[in-house]
Amino acid sequence: MEPIIQVSNVWFKYPGEDPSVEYFVLRDINLSIGIGEYVAIIGPNGSGKSTLARMFNGLLLPNQGEIKIAGLATTTLENLWDIRKTVGMVFQNPDNQIVATTVRDDVAFGLENLGVPRSEMQKRISRALEAVGLSGMEESAPHYLSGGQKQRLSIAGILAMQPKVVVFDEATSMLDPQGRKEVLNLIASLHQSGTTVVHITHSAEEAFLAKRILVIAKGQIQLDLPRDELYKQSINLEKWGLEVPLPVQLHQRLIKRGIPLTDHVKSTEDLVMQIWKLLSKT
Amino acid sequence: MNQLVIGQYVPGRSLIHQLDPRAKLAFVFAYMILVFFANNIASYGLLLFFSACTIYLSQIPLRIFSASLKPILFLILVMILFHLFLTKGGQVLFHFSFLTIYEEGVRQAVFISLRLILLVLTASLLTFTTSPMDLTDGLENMLHPFTRFGLPAHEFALMMSIALRFIPTIWDETEKIKKAQMARGADFESGHIFRRVKSYIPVLIPLFISAFRRAEDLALAMEARCYRGGINRTKLRELHFSTKDLGLVIIFAFLVLGICLLRE
Ligand SMILES: Nc1ncnc2c1ncn2[C@@H]1O[C@H](COP(=O)(O)OP(=O)(O)OP(=O)(O)O)[C@@H](O)[C@H]1O
Ligand SMILES: [Mg+2]
């Protein structure tokens, strides 16, 4: 399968910084993401996650190496609009990505930029608002929406543009638990409908919702594993200053206490099953 | 933010709400000029009557209009005092040591305050009955002919709508920062004016920093959504002149005629 995102030997540093190697935010990144994948990226603060994400739609361009989106290189200026149409991006702060004074006008913003005809626009807007559960709020002012609703509005604005990939750059980190749940559910249903999802997060718990997890630290991809594989080694996440999921900590402590569990569990469900079995034996 | 801000849109379906924003903008602009031609009781009466009719037709509660007048009450008061005591002419109505009030002074005081009230009511009517998006769209559309002379009509309208979008957000943030500074012992209420202005510095600095961060974020988000200026852009909102808007032209013609006949 041809990858939708192909990153080859990418180096990046912000302008003005020292040109020596240690100032490169990203160092020799190689990565490919296939159509329909659900990938999480975790890593400590300042490890270059947002920088990498911004390269996926040409907001930043690599100093060396190449990024191709659906076969189009981001460095070619003519490709830029097709690339941004293909890769939608939801940012962290719910307030700072809404342009218009009503919900409907905000969803329209991207479509207006693309030059979508008006009749088509109306169809797409109502479909997008329905997908995120904001139908009936077309006339509301963004200011009166909750954090979760604002993020869902941003997602609607991107869905209306019919992207193949949606990148969430810590899109849940400023939300309350309710809003977070709303957005995570939406991410899951996007994945279900075949959209490629890249979810950048600090939370191991959220990352483990994805099928494949990348760990980025010090400007490099340290691990790139399917969810189940990483779960087995996730006690190592501590090494990069990341939180270890609670079930994994529990598992390790139970073993230390001499409880006869297998060395590795694949998931929370797996752990629960093993504990159940133990309990029913005794 | 509970209190009504001047210029806030009050949603509705009244006749005035339904008028084309361009027609309203043009009418309000022309009407405001016309207000300056009124110079006696009859002509002011006509304008007041007309404004009262439009307010009635807008179906917006009167108290919202009176709230919009509140911020200019002080200005009106100053104007009244100024004219009462300083304008000379006509009969002397009142005399006490150095204070003399002339007939002309009273006239001017009444008319100037009426003029101010008319102007504010008209501007309020426009913003109360026209959504910000319609207003900026109307403005962009009306300014469009000037783009060939280098006027950035699209950018101007976008700037305005972004400002309108962020005013409540930044207002809330101001309140939050104020409370945070108050919790640290800042005092915004007491002291003379200089001191009070100075006490706002610790509010303004974080506010500015955050506003710049917002601007950066927003610019990035807009670019990510394929924004590239006004070229090849389509619009969700369409503006339509209707027969109602034509009515405005006729009404205005009558008003001009009326003022010409009634003024001295
Ligand atoms: N505009 C910029 N100019 C200069 N340096 C920057 C800029 N943006 C980020 N950096 C630096 O680049 C590095 C990587 O930043 P990036 O935002 O990609 O990290 P991140 O992994 O997204 O971190 P976080 O988890 O805090 O969001 C950081 O050291 C940061 O200080
Ligand atoms: Mg980041």
Automatic annotation (TrEMBL), chain A:
Q: Could you tell me which InterPro entries the record lists for this protein?
A: AAA+_ATPase, ABC_transporter-like_ATP-bd, ABC_transporter-like_CS, ABC_transpr_CbiO/EcfA_su, ECF_ABC_transporter_ATP-bd, EcfA_1, P-loop_NTPase
Query: One GO molecular-function annotation for this sequence?
Result: ATP hydrolysis activity
Keywords tagged on the record: ATP-binding, Cell membrane, Membrane, Nucleotide-binding, Translocase, Transport
Locate the transmembrane regions by residue number: none
Query: PANTHER family annotated for this entry?
Result: ENERGY-COUPLING FACTOR TRANSPORTER ATP-BINDING PROTEIN ECFA1 (PTHR43553:SF24), HEAVY METAL TRANSPORTER (PTHR43553)
Q: Give the UniProt entry's GO cellular component terms.
A: ATP-binding cassette (ABC) transporter complex
Instruction: Kindly indicate whether the keyword ATP-binding belongs to this entry.
Output: yes
Q: What name appears for this protein in its UniProt entry?
A: Energy-coupling factor transporter ATPase
Where it mainly occurs, coarsely classed, is membrane
Q: Which family does it belong to?
A: Belongs to the ABC transporter superfamily.
UniProt domain ABC transporter: residue ranges: 5-243
Does Nucleotide-binding show up as a keyword for this record? Answer: yes
SMART domains from the UniProt entry: AAA
The family database entries (Gene3D superfamilies) matched by this protein are listed as: P-loop containing nucleotide triphosphate hydrolases
Q: Where in the cell is it found?
A: Cell membrane
Membrane topology qualifier: Peripheral membrane protein
UniProtKB/TrEMBL annotation, chain B:
Entry annotated with the keyword Ribosomal protein = no
Q: Which UniProt keywords apply?
A: Cell membrane, Membrane, Transmembrane, Transmembrane helix, Transport
Q: How does it sit in the membrane?
A: Multi-pass membrane protein
Main location (coarse class): membrane
Kindly give the PANTHER family that the UniProt entry links to this protein: SLL0384 PROTEIN
HAMAP family linked to this entry: EcfT (MF_01461)
Describe the task this protein carries out: Transmembrane (T) component of an energy-coupling factor (ECF) ABC-transporter complex. Unlike classic ABC transporters this ECF transporter provides the energy necessary to transport a number of different substrates.
Q: What is this protein called?
A: Energy-coupling factor transporter transmembrane protein EcfT
Q: Which organism is it from?
A: Thermoflavimicrobium daqui
